[in-house]
Amino acid sequence: MKFDKWNKIKKEIHKKDEIPFFRNWQIWYISMWVNIWFEQDWKNDTFSRPVLILKKFNKDIFLWIPTTTVEKEWRFYFDIWKIRWEKNFLILSQVRLYSSKRLENIIWWIDKDILKEIKQKISKLIE
Prior knowledge:
Blueprint: H1 2-15, E1 26-31, E2 48-56, E3 61-68, E4 77-83, E5 86-91, E6 96-99, E7 103-109, H2 112-125
């Protein structure tokens, strides 16, 4: 079952000693979990997917937004152009806090002005 496989991976993540250096505006692959129903979840066998680091609070935790290649014209999505030759969107309604132990590898970064625009859009969503 998927939950059992994820639990094995999760235990390995928890044991990690090294935490990579990361910044706001970067897009990383991170280890996720098996989500329920409409929650955005993994894209591959290692339960990981690309996410945008929205806010680094310290070396241990950060706020992130998942990406998707599924194009939707909806206020909860934000077009971030091409990442690794694919059109990508942020799912603004699924902002979350995670441990930096989940970071796997950096794959891209976005312009700081675009990050500012994303933050403004999220702020409007939660008003």
